[in-house]
Amino acid sequence: MTQVDTFTLVLAALACFTGAYVQTAIGFGMAVVAAPILFYLDPALVPGPLMLVLLVMCLVNGWRFRKGLELNLLAPALLARVPGSAVGVWLLMVLPIKWLAVLIAITIMLGVVVRLKDVALPMTKANMALGGFLSGVMGTSTTIGGPPMVLVMHGADMHRIRANLAGFFVVSTLMSVGALTTGGFLTQAHLEMALPLAPAALLGNWVAVRSLHLVSRPVMHYGSLSLCTLAVIGMLINTLT
User: Fold this and answer.
1) Which contiguous run of DSSP H or E holds residue 223?
2) How many CB atoms sit inside 10 A of residue 148's CB?
3) How many CA atoms within 13 Å lie on the side-chain side of 153?
4) Most CB atoms closer than 10 Å: which of 37, 100, 140, 234?
5) Would residue 182 count as lying in a domain?
6) What is the pLDDT of residues 175-225, one digit of tens each?
7) Number of structural domains the chain divides into
């Protein structure tokens, strides 16, 4: 695995800072924002190092919103996420790097559509299980596991979404870390790459908590979606040409 240069790490840290800010604000978005940028900078940063940074963020937000957790609601999604994570590792084993970029792009654009169209499914046990399975597949292979769960939970109030997504992501990210480690996609080298990025994510979380009242919801909404779309376009141009 090649060493990541300092300039690349600085840009990667800025992407993690921005992603953490968005995730703290709306309940998901860390990987949606950061994954295409990190993949563009160096494909080795996804999924392993970004997954570790995401785990740090999830633990922080999970603790912050712990009082709003509904474990009975999340149980079907968490159980279904186990086989989903296994499928995600299998995809990493069989997909060339070019197709991994395409998978990341599709996953992100699904997230963009969910946010733009206000699409929502009933929060039935079956839908929660389906969302958990797809989140496992997408989250483990690309680190972007939020869109399927947001699709199911989108109709709830924002506090309920934040709390339950935070709890879901704590457990599900731990599952993905275990699956990636077992599959050989998360090593000590990945940990070393993640170490300088984690503080940037924590700083983004801290800034978000203290400044969200200064940023209007439409600016956050359309700004994050625009950033995601531009990042996807840049990543695909870099990978497919």
Assistant:
1) helix 217-240
2) 29
3) 29
4) 140
5) yes
6) 999 999 999 999 999 999 999 999 999 999 999 889 877 767 677 667 666
7) 1
What is the domain range of residue 86? 6-240
Using CA atoms, how far apart are residues 76 and 71, in angstroms rounded to an integer?
9
Asked, for residue 1, whether it belongs to a domain, the answer is: no
Radius of gyration in angstroms for the set of CA atoms belonging to the chain, rounded to a whole number: 16
**pLDDT of res. 54:** 93
CA distance readout (Å), 92 to 103, 113, 193: 11, 25, 19
- What is the number of other CB atoms lying within 10 angstroms of the CB of residue 217? 11
- Per-residue pLDDT tens digits for 118-141: 666 788 999 999 999 999 998 898
Amino acid at 137: V
Distance CA 82, CA 140 (A): 10
Q: Tell which residue, 208, 197, 182, has the closest CA to residue 29.
A: 208
In the structure encoding, which two tokens stand for residue 135, read together? 């989140």
Closest to 164 measured CA to CA, from 55, 49, 62: 62
Q: What is the token pair recorded at 147?
A: 């869109």
